[in-house]
Design goal:
about 260 residues; alpha/beta
Amino acid sequence: MKTILITGSTDGIGKLTAIQLAKKGHAVYMHGRNETKLLAAIKEVKQLTKNDNIDGFVADFSKLEVVSKMVDEVKSKLSTLDILINNAGILKSKNEATETGHDIRFVVNYFAPYVLTNSLLPILRKGNNSRIINLSSAAQSPVSMDALSGKVRLSAQAAYAQSKLALTMWSNKLAVQEKGIIVIPVNPGSLLNTNMVKEAYGQFWSSADKGADILTELAVSEKHTESNGKYFDNDKGTFSDAHNDAYNQEKINQMISETNKILKL
């Protein structure tokens, strides 16, 4: 049995992944920003899977101080963590910028998982064949340091694409840094049937199960024990190459340095 934390798992592929992993008998910790919705999702997963080892954490990922509080809660509840799936993400929002003046896409899609994951590394290192699965996207475009720091405003689509490449670049850095943890960035599939996609585009191409199936496989399948640092593109159904910048060490180091400066780390 694995101990698994899935962010953004009160709906969409996050919740479907929680259901699949719970059915396999794992202890699943869900996350959502709304407590009522989270409690309802936990109850639903327990009933559907007949697995009582389901719990969760509430945190609004647009507020990094709240992410840090969630870290404390996770560490107080769990001494080890085997799998972390950084699934929470945002594209369209009524509030384009956070209280700190940063684009909400960069904060939720990149800064929040960066803070959460780095803070949870001590218990991930104690896990059993630990894995970190980071949700990237087919949409990836070069990261502007001015946009990252909030000096320049971007469209929702541009900020989303840059935040997803930022997450992928950092994943590759993490894969090299953490020798005992398997880190896999993944595009779960384009235009899956999720609320985020329907709000943004009004249509979808594939069932959300397509994304949940690959997240479940990457998280626990034995066939991915050698997949550290590889990028899985679920539009192609195979490991593939991400954007060129994901492998540019100079750009990665510059972005990590800027990130640490922004986050005062």
